[in-house]
Amino acid sequence: MGRTVKLMVACGSGIATSTHAASMVQEYMEERHIPVSIMTCSVQDLANRLSGCDVILSTAQVSFESGLPVFNGVPLLTGVGDDELLKELADKILEISNTVV
């Protein structure tokens, strides 16, 4: 397995929604033995918290360009498309994890 990928999960306040989404992602990745480190924050703090991050998952609109892959986390809240989102996120994390830097 490759290196641990750092995922930032953001929501409007950085408390409930991001924690819920992060928990769902953590469980999914652990079941598949995918190396990921997950942090949470508010979307307002996102730009200041990206040092060392590899991927962003946000339930709120990200209004700036970070150069990182950004995933819309709303399906984790609604249950509509959540399986597809988790698979796409896992695929991206595995791709980054296995990339030699």
Automatic annotation (TrEMBL):
Note the Gene3D superfamilies from the entry: 3.40.50.2300
Q: Which SUPFAM superfamilies match?
A: PTS system IIB component-like
Offer an example of a GO molecular function term for this protein.
Answer: protein-N(PI)-phosphohistidine-sugar phosphotransferase activity
Q: Which domain of life is it from?
A: Bacteria
Keywords per UniProt? Signal, Transferase
Q: Give the GO biological process terms.
A: phosphoenolpyruvate-dependent sugar phosphotransferase system
Residues forming coiled coils: none
Q: Which residues form the PTS EIIB type-2 domain?
A: 5-97
Which N-terminal stretch is annotated as signal sequence?
1-21
Record-linked InterPro entries: PTS_EIIB-like_sf, PTS_EIIB_2, PTS_EIIB_2/3
Name of the protein this chain belongs to = PTS system, galactitol-specific IIB component
Organism of origin: Lactonifactor longoviformis DSM 17459
